[in-house]
Amino acid sequence: MNKQDKYSYWLDAAEYDIVTAESMLNSGRYLYVVFMCQQALENLAKGLYIYFVGDEAPRVHIISYILTEVTDRLNIRVDEDIFTLLDKLSAYYLQGRYPTYKEKISKLVNKKEAMEILEKSREVFVWMQTLKKLKE
């Protein structure tokens, strides 16, 4: 696969994940809204990483790290609010993988919080997609 094909693979996964986040919101599974938003942005970041930085996606789950590699390559400054969201999503993701933390985190994510995270994630998702156009 060439870089475009690899990017498309990750983009497809990211789009599926953001739609799944919407489904989780509609079904009242608020922690999974956050989880799927994290997955969507991580997958898109990995696609961008392959497109701009290297042949393979890094095997890490910290979105801000992956995105920084991309934006440094493009000489783009990223708004701190984006990193705040990405770090929040990564923290939820990493802690939510363990049953002892999952219950505690579930209590922190109500409908309002899930809706806000999904809305912000959609905005960042759209912004991240614009980065690819910088090289076209």
Please describe the topology of this protein:
Elements: H1 3-26, H2 30-52, H3 63-74, H4 80-96, H5 99-108, H6 111-132
Helix pairs in contact: 1-2, 1-6, 2-3, 2-4, 2-6
Summarize the structure.
This protein has 136 residues and is an all-alpha fold. It has a single domain, classed as Up-down Bundle (Four Helix Bundle (Hemerythrin (Met), subunit A)), CATH 1.20.120. 79% of the residues lie in helices and 0% in strands.
Provide an overview of this structure.
It is elongated, with a radius of gyration of 15 Å. The longest helix has 24 residues. With 136 residues, the chain is mainly alpha-helical. It is 79% helix and 0% strand. It has a single domain, classed as Four Helix Bundle (Hemerythrin (Met), subunit A) (Up-down Bundle).
Order of SSEs, N→C? Answer: HHHHHH
N- to C-terminal distance:
18 Å
CATH homology superfamily: Nucleotidyltransferases  domain 2
How many individual β-strands? 0
Number of helices: 6
- In CATH, the topology is named Four Helix Bundle (Hemerythrin (Met), subunit A)
Structural class: mainly alpha
Please tell me how large the radius of gyration is: 15 Å
CATH architecture: Up-down Bundle
What share of residues are in beta strands?
Answer: under 5%
Q: What coarse outline follows from CA principal-axis ratios?
A: elongated
Largest sheet geometry: none
Percent of residues in helices: over 70%
Please, how many domains?
Answer: 1
What's the average pLDDT? Answer: 93
Return the CATH class.
Mainly Alpha
Sequence stretches where pLDDT stays below 50 over 5 or more residues: none
Oligomer: single chain
